[in-house]
Structure formats: structure tokens, C-alpha cells
Specification:
mainly alpha; three-stranded antiparallel beta sheet
């Protein structure tokens, strides 16, 4: 007979192999995507999304527009960077503390309906598809200004969906920039898959104060020292153009 997991009061679960262990789910107070904050720091240091507002066409005319084009595109790209390829994943990601921080939202990031319309209607416009196809080139130019490397390997996506293909390509390139530009020697050999499972998927507890939001990061595959060195290397990129 299959053993059933007992559900206690509220959100607490008891498990049978060790009755001293209890499981609790705390939603927006915990995250499993803590490492995305390092990518967001690199994104800001290189100014990757700076040209989005002027370059992309937004035909929305309503007065209650809560998410601008930059944050919608950023949420779309970062979702894929973290391994979430389905628009329906926005149901959970919209309340995730890290995704809210990445998109600069005090409340929720874009919902399933909002991100769905963005990807299937707004990004599908011919002029926006052309902008998306140019983004990787612009990003490479920004990255090359701050590295002695003479080339950076790009993703050439063969997806039948031009919209999803461009977003996945942008996510790949953002991941590759961090890998090529700022990884410390100890983990320089890590693949993008290793970075997804070991760096991006850092668990963190969120503490909110009147002026600050603190992410208490778990130290498992990535230590405090390594994460600190990554941030230090990103900070050096802000003022060290080699062009």
C-alpha cells in the first residue's frame, strides 16, 4: 500500500521517514532563483536593456499599463535563463521575490495573461521581431567593449518560432557573458548547465524592512566568497571599457 503524506494545519506537512521533520511552504518569502541577481547586476553593468524602450514598438493604449516593455522583455528572457520555457510558469514567477527584484516591481511581476500577450502579440509584430534579432549583436558590442577577448561565441537558434527563438538566444547569450567575463578561476570551467543548477538555483530567504530587502542566500555549490568575487568582477566592468 502506498504511504500517504500527512497534511497538518495550514501549510505544514509531516513526512513518515522522520517524524521530527516538517515541511512548510512560504511562497513569496522564499526563492530558488537567488543567483539571477548576479545576472541582473551584469545586465545593469553592461546596459543590456537600455535601448529597449526606444527601439521596440508598444501599441498598448490603455491607462492601466503596469509593466513597461523593458521589464516585460527582461522577465521573458530571465525566465528562460532560469529554465522556465512555458508562459504558464509566470503564475509562480510573478510572485517570486527574485523575479520581482529583477523587474523592479515592488508588487508582482507580470502575470500569465500579461506575459502571454506580450510574447504572442507585442513581440510578434514585424518591427519588434527585427529589433529582437538585433539585440544579440548590440549586446556583444557592449560586452566586447569591456573584455580583451576578440570573439564571443553566440547562440544561433534554429527554433521554428522566431519569437521564442530570439528570447532563448538572448538568455543563452546573457548566461554566456557572465561565464566568459566574470567567473572566478575556480569555476571558470563550468558549463551553462552547471551555472543553471549551481549558481542560478540558489535558495534564499527574503527579509523585508522599511528601507531594504535582504536575500539570505544558501551556501551549497556557491560560497559567499565566490559570489562576492563575481559581484566584484561585475563592478569592475562598469568603468573599464577597453575600446
Amino acid at each position: 500500500m502506498t504511504a500517504k503524506i500527512k497534511h497538518a494545519k495550514g501549510e505544514r506537512f509531516n513526512i513518515r521517514f522522520n517524524r521530527k521533520i516538517r515541511l512548510e511552504f512560504h511562497g513569496a518569502r522564499l526563492t530558488s532563483e537567488g543567483g539571477l541577481l548576479a545576472y541582473r547586476e551584469l545586465d545593469e553593468a553592461l546596459g543590456l536593456f537600455d535601448s529597449v524602450p526606444a527601439a521596440m514598438t508598444d501599441r498598448r493604449t490603455g491607462r492601466n499599463i503596469q509593466h513597461d516593455m523593458t521589464n516585460l522583455l527582461r522577465q521573458s528572457v530571465y525566465s528562460r535563463l532560469a529554465g522556465y520555457e512555458d508562459v504558464n510558469d509566470a503564475r509562480c514567477l510573478s510572485v517570486d521575490p527574485v523575479m520581482r527584484a529583477v523587474t523592479g516591481k515592488k508588487k508582482n511581476a507580470a502575470s500569465v495573461n500579461t506575459i502571454g500577450r506580450f510574447e504572442t502579440e507585442i513581440l510578434a509584430l514585424k518591427e519588434n521581431l527585427e529589433v529582437l534579432s538585433e539585440i544579440s549583436g548590440r549586446w556583444v558590442e557592449k560586452a566586447m567593449e569591456r573584455t580583451p577577448h576578440h570573439r564571443i561565441i553566440l547562440d544561433m537558434d534554429s527554433s521554428e518560432s522566431p519569437v521564442h527563438g530570439e528570447q532563448e538566444g538572448s538568455a543563452y547569450n546573457l548566461g554566456n557573458f557572465l561565464r566568459r567575463l566574470v567567473l572566478p578561476g575556480k569555476i571558470k570551467h563550468w558549463s551553462l548547465r552547471s551555472l543553471l543548477t549551481k549558481l542560478i538555483k540558489i535558495g534564499a530567504k527574503v527579509l523585508r524592512h522599511s528601507r531594504y530587502v535582504t536575500f539570505q542566500m544558501a551556501e551549497v555549490a556557491i560560497s559567499k566568497e565566490i559570489f562576492s568575487e563575481i559581484l566584484l568582477r561585475i563592478n569592475r566592468l562598469r568603468c573599464c571599457s577597453l575600446q
